[in-house]
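Lecture 7 notes: from sequence to structure.
We start with the chain below.
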Amino acid sequence: MSVNIVHTYRGDLQIDLIAPNGTSTRLKNSSSSDGAANVIATYPVNTSGSPRNGTWQLKVTDVYSGDTGYINQWSIQF
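Predicted structure tokens for the same chain:
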């Protein structure tokens, strides 16, 4: 699972992958000590217990206020 998220302070972000059956997998916790910009990363995800067909969602939560960002791109491979 690959993500490319533009954000001025990546430590603000909490990232979850939501499977079609509603199962949520935490990819990244927020961290007040991570002040770098952007999240460009690959995360290992075990999808064996989730259906491949259906809508997969990437949920990104900015747990602090004061800056903005956007999901530039994300992908998952089975």
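Points to note: Residues 47 and 78 are 7 Å apart (CA to CA). The beta strands are 2-7, 13-18, 24-28, 39-42, 57-62, 69-75.
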